[in-house]
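Replying to the earlier thread about multi-chain prediction with a worked example.

Input:
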Amino acid sequence: MLTVSMTVNGIAVSADVEARTLLVQFLREKLGLTGTHIGCDTSQCGACVVHLNGKSVKSCTTLAVQANGAAVTTIEGLAAADGTLHPMQEAFRDNHGLQCGFCTPGMVMSAIDLAQSHADLSEAEIREGLEGNMCRCTGYHNIVKAVKAGAQAMTAAMRR
Amino acid sequence: MADSGIGASVKRKEDFRFLTGRGTYIDDINRPGQTCAYILRSPHAHADIVKIDVAKAKVAPGVITVLTGADYDKGGVPCGWQIHSKDGSPMIEPPHFPLCKDKVRHVGDQVALIVAETYALAKDAAELIDVTYKEQKPIVSTGDADKPGVAQVWAAAKNNTCYDWHIGDKAAADAAFGKAAHVTKIDLVNQRLIPNAMEPRAAIGDFDRATGDYTLYTTSQNPHVIRLLMGAFVLQIPESKLRVVAPDVGGGFGSKIFHYSEEALVTWAAGKIQRPIKWTAERSESFMTDAHGRDHVSHAELALDKDGKFLGLRVSTKANMGAYLSTFAPCVPTYLYATLLAGVYTTPAIYAEVKAVFTHTVPVDAYRGAGRPEATYLLERLVEKAARETGIDRVELRRKNFIPTNAFPYQTPVALQYDSGDYFSTLDMALKASDWAGIETRRAEAKKHGKLRGIGISTYLEACGIAPSAVVGSLGARAGLYETGSIRVHPTGSVTVFTGTHSHGQGHETTFAQLVSDGLGIPIESIEVSHGDTNKIPFGMGTYGSRSLAVGGSAIVKAMDKIVKKATRIAAHLMEASVADVEFKNGTFTVAGTDKSKTFGEVALTAYVPHNYPITELEPGLEETAFYDPLNFTYPGGCHICEVEIDPDTGVTKVVNFTAVDDVGRVINPMIVEGQVHGGVTQGIGQALLEACAYDKDSGQLLTGSYMDYTMPRADDLPNFKVATHATMCTHNPLGSKGVGEVGAIGSPPAVINAVLDALAPLGVQDISMPATPLKVWQAIQAGSGRMAAE
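Result:
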């Protein structure tokens, strides 16, 4: 057993884990943060995307020990305490960018990183940027619309 | 209620929990004292089990129990539909035990269940199990399965044949071919697909030591069906002692309809160890155990007269069932396929024969569209080929053979009676929206850049809203296919709606709330929709076959009618008026010609606080249940047009435009309907260009066992879609709705392939199979160019 410590959604946490424990298992099983999902074994589907020190990572191919000392943000950490959604979450809702909801947490986390790392995202950039996130329900049409709207709302919020 | 009632694009009520990570999927649930299961699966496609030694695994750290086929003393997983062959004999129905007893019949077949304190410990222990197999040669090919000399899956199924069925009038069809001016023939493969809902299947079996009650939490589209099948046929647990819960389910597409062995195993073993057991599939397990879809090999012939009118159609299809019969498998290539072969056309004589074969592969069952995409692909490829051969414009040939809009109800020669449709309008709308007329300009423009542009069309119809019980019963269904809806009006006027359908992405919590908001005139915020728990919902047949609104929504409407009828009597009493004089509109009861009125909330309160109440005539309370059994299937239809651009140097096909105009009957929430079409079309484009399940023919190994090998559609594979609807109302249900879940996946594949063939036609390419991968397209271009040069 190894002890890992990190900040998750602004809260300091520490736990003993087996060396083979993945970050996604640590989040889901040790912390009960089940919003981060496991959709595949091969780091392809992106349902498990979280932010590690502000950048999106696939938590199914990150060991918990690799996140030792880091700041992790999960889907549960996006909305304000009063329930106000993050602009990207709001954009997914407004644009019907989700159906079954299973890919949604990873999709939103990837979209936020994408928006933060590109100014004025084009549709092609969004489609390419989401290449590592699979959705079987929406055909991506409304996800692309949502990411575009969400990115614009994030920019507007920053200006304010 | 204009902003939240029927026809409004209401934002979804369910989204908040999904967007904040608060959805409850099965793997998110943990029961007190829970253990974890790992299933040891067969690495071979076909082998005898000589010996299983579990001694080391049983004493491994954290292991609670290890169970094999020798321990399993309960029933097999049943099949829900019986087909009879041409000669009247019933289909061959082999046993399907949740743990293999003496043989394994596909890679991934279940050999042992290991239960341990953690999943990792169970998986570690599985490596200590020593299984001695005697490998046998497998058969995986659909086309070869019934040929002499190949491996046999079941001794009882000679030539691996499950059934040899037919429909239609052979003599009439043969006569039609006798007087044909032209006959078009085609050979097609509708390739095997893997559904790939993003949430892997999972199940938790729980046993209550105090009451002896079992609970199964499972990723299901139809929890009551699982309770019935597993309780009555597999584990012999009465319904009253078995609760099945399917909370948030991360996509289904058909693959979560069926009763799977893992559900029975965790429930059975939980009773044995008297602790809860969780099993969650790894994605590789999903690939090799979720029921697959499609897998047809067909030959078809169309007879035309000199003017291009269709005279007759003959179809011969082989359909792969896999190694065992999954829940609905036998009905998919028969009553959900061959009955659709009239399509939108007036073809007067049709004869189809379908042979279902067993192979050493994962069972095949319903996958989004189920039979109807196969029928549509066959017809629309055949009609397209006929147009090219006869020189008749492909749009005109279709229009010439459409069922006239004034011909409904229309009886086809293959059993179905269509209630309504208007194929001319959906065609015209799609032609306009796609700028069909402007293709030559765009083709010339593409050519300047070295690209091949093509456009393809599909005019389709499907049968859904499954299904009238008596009809399907006569066709072999072993269950009824009605639906239930319950409405519980609470004392202070809020409402809970209980539906036997199940939402796994379709947005029922919103659509059904809109129905009730509209019908009872109460705010949508006051309505909650409950589904997915056999202890809450009276009964239900679940969600598949685009049935939830047409059948489940109709049940809710019927229950609402009962609520309004009773509430009107209470209101009449309160207003001292005769029932006949009371009107209910926008949530208010009024008496004609007076200023008397009572709100729905006041009446609800009176029903539960009956101080001033017609107690001798009416029971207190306001709660009603309806069972709705549809009178017919529903028949959505429409036109899909796809435009592609192909790079001849690489063979890469890019979908540049996609237009779908669908008649899905009355639309409740246009936003949700469009989303369903987007998703369905994407699965259709996936089938046409990207996806294929492949087995190695010699070893029977699944070659497409991960997302590294099975090509899922991703955001950068797709265009934005142009989607529109044109409604003719369903004539036999109270909503007029037909269903939208599957139309996208049904109409789109032939539109895409016809577009690819249109683009490649100038190079002499006449045929290409799905998926039209860059390799296949490139090879077709080389072969076509070579042929043209030789000519």
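Chain A is about 35% helix and 15% strand.

Feel free to reuse this layout for your own posts.
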